Amino acid sequence: MNREQISKLAHTHHPIKSPLNDDSVSSLLSQALPRGDERVLDLGCGSAEWLLRALTTHPDVHAEGVDISESDLEEARQKAVRLGIDARLTLHHQKAEDFTSPHPFDLILCVGSTHALGGLLPTLEAARTHLAPGGRVLIGDGFWERTPTPEAIEVLGDFADLPTLVDQVVTNGWTPVQGHTSTRQELDDYEWSNWGTLADWALDHPTHPDSPQILTWATTRRTEWLHTYRDSWGFTTLILRPTPA
Predict the structure, then answer these.
(1) Closest Cα partner for 191 from 157, 151, 218?
(2) Where's the Methyltransferase domain (predicted)?
């Protein structure tokens, strides 16, 4: 299996590819869609779980998603058909930075996918070009809760702490109007689900040629989480509006 296939398998029981539970997702979407008839864009949508939930709970919302994974987009299309919301969902198979649209969007999503656009601040700059007047951005990214070890930085990459992250967002012309910091339970549930699901699959398919690779991957990632970054890494999801000039 390639990394995309492994990721898809790992998220079987946690389709939101970020450490957020269902209540947190519902609450954030409710606050980000105050009218209920918004046009929504997800940059790096994957299998479009955020969009599917927005469309299911808000019958007057229309949404578009952009991603480079054709298999994820096809999965999203099939789910949308089963849910009866496919007429309100448009999916684009392309890089997020190359996406253009003839119309702006009232809400732009990018949760756990800022790497697709080069990081948090480049993602916000890209979002600004697509945002309608009075619109909102719902963005989620990691941060360091405590000073990380060099090993943690090597595994996850470098992040700011939460105050610095918010300061950077504000300095770049955005005002936070709501936010959510993932709880320890959400963070732990996400990690246990991902690596446990992979291990479970490998143990259930002992004769599959990929089984040893998957079990090794699961064991390595679980060990990295528990020993390297569990006590230092966090995740925040912010609802932002442009700050008046």
Answers:
(1) 218
(2) 37-142
Give dist(CA 185, CA 193) in Å, integer. Answer: 12
Q: Return d(Cα 138, Cα 115) in angstroms, integer.
A: 15
Q: C-alpha angle with apex 35: 30 to 38, nearest 5 degrees?
A: 90
Task: Provide the token pair at 22.
Answer: 């269902």
Structure tokens at 198: 């992979």
State percent of the chain over pLDDT 90.
96
| pLDDT of 156 | 95
CATH, domain range 18-184+233-242: 3.40.50.150
Helix (H, G, I), strand (E, B) or coil at 142: strand
Instruction: Please name the amino acid found at residue 109.
Output: L
CA dihedral 94, 96, 98, 104 (to 10 degrees): 110
Quick check: 156 and 142 in contact, CB under 8 A? Answer: yes
